[in-house]
Amino acid sequence: MQNFNYLLTLAIFAFVGAADEANKIINCYFGSWAVVQESSQFKLESLNANFCTHLSCVNFDVASNGSLDALNNPNDANIVASKRAMTLKRKSSYLKSIIAVVGGPKTNFINIAVDEIKREIFIFSVLTLLIEYGFDGVDLFWPNVGRYDGDAYLLNTLLSNLGNAVKAFNFSLSISLKGELKDMQQWSKITDLWKEVDYVNVMAFNYTDTFYHAPFHKDKENSVQETMKYLLQNKSAPASKLLLGVAFFSNGYIVKKKERSSGKNVVKLYQSAPYRQISYNGLCSLLEETEFWYQKHLEATYIKYGGIFESFESPMTLAVKTDYVYELGLGGIAVWLLEHDDFVGGCGQSYPLMRLIHERMSCELDYDG
Ligand SMILES: *[C@@H]1O[C@H](CO)[C@@H](O)[C@H](O)[C@H]1NC(C)=O
Ligand SMILES: *[C@@H]1O[C@H](CO)[C@@H](O)[C@H](O)[C@H]1NC(C)=O
Ligand SMILES: *[C@@H]1O[C@H](CO)[C@@H](O)[C@H](O)[C@H]1NC(C)=O
Ligand SMILES: *[C@@H]1O[C@H](CO)[C@@H](O)[C@H](O)[C@H]1NC(C)=O
C-alpha cells in the first residue's frame, strides 16, 4: 500500500514547470451556496489570497426577461458571496478579478439570444451589476450550445454584443464549456468565440465514455489530451486563451460483485452514469485507510472501497496537468470547485490541492495560510 501523504509531498516538490512564467491564470470557481450557508465550515475569507488569480462565483441566475436576478435582489446569495470574495482582493496583488458568473440551472441562453430586447436587458443588467459592485468581469457558465443548427449563430450574436459592451468598460469576458469531444464539436460552431473572450474554461472532466472521470491519456475516446489537441490542432484555438479545467470531486461507480476482491486492473462496472460524486474533502480521509491506485497508462487515480470504484483528481494527476499547462503554453487552470478541497485541513495541511496548484504554477511562493 502506498503512502498517500508521501506521494503528495513528492508531487509538490517535483516541480519542473517554467519558473519564468508566473503570470498564469488560476481561476477558482466557488459556489455561493457554500459561502452563505450558516452551517458551512467553508470560510472564503480564510483562503490564502494568493492561491487564485480569479475568484468566480457560481451561479448568478437570469430571469425570463433577461435581467439578472441579483440586480433585482440585493440579498441574492451570489451577491453576498461575491462581496466576501471582494474582501480578499485587498490582500493580494494577484487577485485582480472577481468574476460574476452568469448562468444557472434555470438560465437558457438561447431564449435570451433569440430576442433582441432580452439581449439588451441582459447586457445592461450585467454591466450595471459589474459597475455597481466593482466586479472585474463576467463568466458565462454555458454547459450546452443547444440542439438546433441556428443556436450557435444566436449565441454568437449574444456573445459578440456582450463582448463589445464589456470591452468598452475594460471588464473581462470568459465562458466555460464542456470538454467532451461531442460538445466541443457543437460549440466550435460559434465563430467569434476566440475573438470575443478573454479566456475559455475548458471543463476537461466528467467524461461520459470512461470510468476514470478525467484521465490525462485516453481510455476510449475522451481525455484531457484529446480535448486540448482537438481545440489547438483541429480548431486552431489560441493556447493562451485556454484554461485547463480540473475537478475536485470524484465519480464513483458500483463494482460488480465478483470483481470486488480482484486485482486493481479488473474494473467492470454497471452504470453509464456515476452512482455518486464525492468532493475531495470527503474523500481524503478514505485515502488514508484505503489502498489507492495510480493508473499510469492513463495518469488517473482511483480507489476501490466498499464495492465502489471511485476515480478522482489527486496531487499526482494535478501535477501532470499543471505541467501540461506549461508544455502547451495554456493561459492557466480553472478549478471546480474551491470548497471541494480539504479547506479545513482535516487530512493534513489545509487546501492540499490548491496549495499544489499554486506552488507548481507560481514562482512567488507564499506559504502562509
Ligand atoms: C425582469 O423581471 C424581474 C422579475 O422577474 C423584475 O424584477 C424586473 O424589473 C424585470 N426587468 C425588466 C427590465 O423588465
Ligand atoms: C481601459 O483600459 C485602457 C488601457 O489600459 C485605458 O486607456 C482606458 O481608459 C480604459 N477605459 C475605461 C473605460 O476604463
Ligand atoms: C481532428 O483532426 C484530425 C486530423 O485532421 C482528424 O483525424 C480527427 O478526426 C479530428 N478530430 C475530431 C474529434 O474531429
Ligand atoms: C458530472 O456529470 C454528472 C452526470 O454524469 C452530472 O450529474 C454532474 O452534474 C456533472 N458535474 C459537473 C460538475 O459537471
TrEMBL record:
- Residues in the signal sequence: 1-18
Tell me which SUPFAM superfamilies the record gives. Answer: (Trans)glycosidases
List, for all copies, the residue spans of the domain called GH18: 24-364
Query: One GO BP annotation here?
Result: chitin catabolic process
Query: SMART domains recorded for this chain?
Result: Glyco_18
Q: Which UniProt keywords apply?
A: Signal
Say yes or no: keyword tRNA processing present. no
Which GO CC terms are listed, alphabetically? extracellular region
Q: Which GO terms describe its molecular function?
A: chitin binding; chitinase activity
Q: Which Pfam families match?
A: Glyco_hydro_18 (PF00704)
Task: Tell me the superkingdom of the source.
Answer: Eukaryota
Extract the Gene3D superfamilies matched here: 3.10.50.10, Glycosidases (3.20.20.80)
Q: What is this protein's record name? A: GH18 domain-containing protein
Organism encoding this protein: Stomoxys calcitrans
What taxonomic classification does the UniProt entry list for its organism?
A: Eukaryota, Metazoa, Ecdysozoa, Arthropoda, Hexapoda
